[in-house]
Structure formats: C-alpha cells, structure tokens
Amino acid sequence: MNSQNPSSAEVEDGTRANEVRGAVRSTLQLGGSLMVTYAIALGIRALMPRYLGPEAFGYFNWSEAFAATFFVATNLGLETYIRKEVPVRPEHASDFFGTTMLLRLAMTLILMVALALVLHHTGEPPEVQHLVQWFALAQSLIVVNASMAALLHSKGKVAGLSVSNVITKIVWGGGLALMAALGVGIQWLAVPMVASEAVKLVISWRLAKVHLGLKFRIDITATKKVMKACLPFFLTAAALACNGRTDMSLLGKLASKEEVGWYGGAFSIAGLTFLISPIFGWVLMPMMSRAASRSPQELSHLTRRSLEGVLAFTVPVMMAMVLGADLWVRLMCGPGFEPAALPLRVLSPIFVMAYVTMVSSIWLTMSNKEWWVTLAATMGAVVNPLLNLALIPFFYGRIGPSGGATATALSMFFTEVIVTVLFLSRMGRNSFDRRSLVMVAKTAVVCVVCVALDRFLAGSVAAWPRLGLTASTYVVGVLVTGAIRPAELLQVVRMARQRGNPAPSEVVVTATPTV
C-alpha cells in the first residue's frame, strides 16, 4: 500500500531544518542590530577615555563595576532558567514572572539603601557616590531587561527586540555624547544608561505580552519551585559577575584609579571581541534546549560544531588584538593610555577561552550538570580575587605604569584557564571530535606563522601595513589548510535566504512509497 503521509522521522527532520533556519534568521536579525549597537558603543568607547582622561575614566569604570557587584543578588539565576525551560513550554513564563518582578523590586530598594550607607562610610568623593548610585539603578533595570529578552529569545521572536536594541543604544550613546559636549560632571554620566534601560523595559514588556501572552500574576507556590530550580544558575551568575567585577574594585583599592583607567581602556577594547556573545543566549541556548529534548547525540553534535564556529571567529580577532595592541590603544583611547597596551595583550586570549566556556556551560546545563558549572564558576570567583591580592602589590610599581593593570589581567587569564580546563574535562569527547581537533591544530600552526611574520617585519615595515600583511597571511593560511571551510559558510548563507518558517505539521516532504 502506497502512502503519501510523511513518517515521524521525516517530520522530525523537517522540524530540525525549520529550527535551524529560524535560528539562522534570528542570528542575522540580532546580528544586524548588534552591528549597529556596537558601532555606537565603539564611538562611545573612543569618546569616554578622551573626555575623562585616565584617572576620571578609572573612577567611571570602578563605579560601574562596584554597582554591578553590589546588585549581583538580583539576578536570581532566572535568565538561564528561562532559556532552558521556556523554549519547550512558553506558557510557563507567566507562572513566575509577576512574583519575581516584585521580589526584585523589594531587593532593589533594600540594596539601594545599603549601597548608600556603604558609600558614605568608604570616603569616596560625593560625585563618585552619586555616579555609583545611578549605575546601581541602571543595573537593576539591566537585570530585568535580561530576563525579558530571554523570554523573547526563547520564543524565537527577535525582530522587535532587534529594533529595541538599536533604539535604546541610540538613547544611551546620544545621551553620553550630549553630556560630554555640555561638559557635565562625572556624577551624571550614568543617567543615559538609566534612561535607555527604562525605554527598553517598556518595549520588551509590550513585545512579551504580544508574542508570549505574558501575564503579570502572583503565584508564590510556582515561584518557589522556580527559585529552587534557579539556585545553581543564580550561584553561577553571581560567581561570574563577581569574577568579572571585583578585579576593578580591588585594583582601585590596591593600586590607583589611574591603573583602573588603563585596565578599563584595555578591557573595553578587548571586550569588542564579545561582539557575538549575546547570540549564545539569544539563539544558541534555546536551540540547544530543543536539541537536548530530542537526544544527547544531537546536543553533542551541535555543541562541537558551535565550538568550531566560536574558534573560527575569536582566534583571528584575538590575533589582531595581540599584534596590534599599541595601534588599538592609540586609536580607541588616545593620549595618556599608552600603558594599556600590555594588559590588552594579556587580556586578548581570555576571550577565546570565554567563548569556549560559554558553549561548554550550555552543554552542561542542558545535560542537567548545572551544578558542575556552578562549581567551576565559584572556583573562578575565589581564585581571581586571591590572584589579584597576590599579584597587584607585586607588579604595581615594579614594571612601571600599568603594572597593577597587567597584574589584574594576568589574574583573569589564569582564572579563565582553570575554568576552561574544568569545563572541557567534564565534557570529555562531547566537546571536540577528530574534525574539530584537526581544525584547532591547523589554526594554531597558522597563528605561529603569523606571529613569526610580525616579528620578522617589525622595525622594517610600519605598524598598519604590517598588521594588514599578517591578517592577509592568516586568511590565506586558514583557507589553504582547510581550517575554515568556505562551502559550509555558503551553506549557512543559503539557509538564511530561505523564507518562511513553517510549523512541523506543514513541512513538505517527499514520502517514499511503502508497502
């Protein structure tokens, strides 16, 4: 008997294909908005050091880091929980959203009072105290907006969010540029961030109501269950936030705010390598959640290929940062920030490892090994400040300007190495297969050749042409060796051009006649 009805396997294959097409389109939509927002951020990153100078820029970075560390508790671990659970049951969002919003509001009020008391007794200048408080208010909005964005990413509705990202970044960047033009005091420089996050919250709430039918209701019983499930995610987020923020706080206390300014300049440049990091939470995590619900094998396959893509993007950017550190510091930060070049070179490799740990942590979370992520992140949060306490006094003043900043960069580097090794060791063969290991080996050889070429040309060729020749060598090298496969990139582009995202029941397949 012949049948034209698709089999369950064919429908499942069609569902996967639709998910991939949807993920690629979401990536391109969000990536487009990221390009615009990063262009604005790039301009601001170049403006602020020049406007403030090393010491005031150090106060600016220290204030933001201090406020973010203080408000770590408001994260609740909710963002990761949403990206794990909501993609497979969107209606669940309304069970906990209203109660967690009220909980965060209460925590914010308590923390704002506590922060004011701490700042009063630390003896920081009044304008810095005001700046920290504005940053704290912005941080409370950032945390809520992250959860709202996670809901929309889990549903795959990102077009409106992409527009929102651009609008709010214009509000932030335009506000800062205006304040710089008016010459306002440092205490007001966080106000544009508060305004932009408030606008984003209004837009995100509207989008969530439209696309998820999100309702604001109080369900304490359901929220208690969610909070229990969020515990490992919360501890992980708290550890990661402290790991990335306490370093500036310690540097400011153990060295000087000028060292914080140099470190902040280096960090802001190196942070540009995080261009695609939001895609991991916005697109990859919901996609891996659905893959995990089908089979561990599919999850591992997706993880390996994602790690390949991560390395293909981050390694050349890292090489450009390391080899052109002096150029980037002059271009982005201006006079007075020359000492930031050394910490920039130390920081650059960290972001390759950070991307690897992002993908690894998603695999561990989807494999119900979230406590391992918490353990590794907590270990990093303990090791990093200990290294700072040991290295900052040793290097500060011994190697000249930026000694303290370089010590902080080294502390983060060693911490990231430890965390990356822990993650990959727990994943085992789920991280890299033979194909990806060959890709890593070929890329490493090309990197060694590029470094050797740069050293050979140093002194005889100007900086910018030398960097261009090295970049060309890298591109030719990865293509000739097959470390990067252009055919696969073209396949992704063709997939992105396919329009429509039919539901699984609408997938058109050619059924093989069966008897």
Care to describe what's here?
There is one protein chain. With 515 residues, the protein is an all-alpha fold. The protein has a domain at 25-242. The protein contains 17 helices and no strands. It is globular and about 70 Å long.
- As residue ranges, the low-confidence spans are 9-15, 495-515
Portion of residues in helices?
Answer: over 70%
Content-based structural category: mainly alpha
Please state the average pLDDT score. 81
Q: Describe the sheet with the most strands.
A: none
Described by the principal axes of the CA atoms, the overall outline is globular
What's the total count of β strands?
0
User: Helical stretch count?
Assistant: 17
Question: What is the percentage of strand-forming residues?
Answer: under 5%
Organism: Corallococcus terminator
Protein name: Flippase
Pfam family, one: Polysacc_synt_3
Subcellular location: Cell membrane
